[in-house]
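Q: Here's a chain of 263 amino acids. Please give me its 3D structure as tokens.
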Amino acid sequence: MTSIRIGAHVDGADAVAQAKAIGAQVAQVFLGDPQSWKVTGSGYPGGDDALRAEAAEAGIDLYVHAPYGINVASTNNRIRIPSRKLLQATLDGAAAIGAKGVVVHGGHVTAKDSPDVGFDNWRKAVDSLDTDVPVLIENTAGGEFAMARQLERLEQLWEAVMSSANASVVGVTLDTCHAWAGGIDLATAVADVRAITGRIDLVHANDSRDVAGSGADRHAHFGEGEIPADLLLGVIAAAGAPVVCETHGDMAPDIAWLRERLA
């Protein structure tokens, strides 16, 4: 049996029961509408303390996925400043439920911007954080001006955030679908990312509906997408980090698929 802890993204309002039902050891949740600019909480009956206690009792590790709109790299003050505030609020909410990390997308700049400005904006965002909960920057699938799509950009981003006084709170989420779609070679992805960051804290394990390099962020259940099984399993085994499956629908078969092949 694999020692890697495997789980899925679940509904925060029913996180523990759903995780138990699909055999998940890890549960990722939102703390509100992922399209919103407000943190309203998981909606768990009994509140934050109940979710924290019941997840701990069940042996389930909690992670939080930050809202999709966050873009701390942006050169637009009306996006960047609210993004910082929302990231801090999400981290506060994650601390309240005892989460082990907050996953946040790397964001992007625009065609008229220098990527260096986006990287420095990330550094400033990390400078401003007040948290003990790790910020797990996730690689993204598409966007020519993305901060964390290609390895070269990830290296520049990592150098910037590591120059922050708060560098110790920053980690990495490696998404297999995003890496595949973004043109990263999955055969060497773990080694390549570790060569840059020295770490991988969480894996988002997803097959892809589209071909390599497509730039399309469309997840598929294992065996139903374009990523060869040996590449998916190789990433997960090499990373050795906790795993979250994120494809819509019943994820019990995905968890079982992984456990059987990683045993």
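Q: Can you summarize the key feature?
A: The first strand starts at residue 6 and ends at 9.
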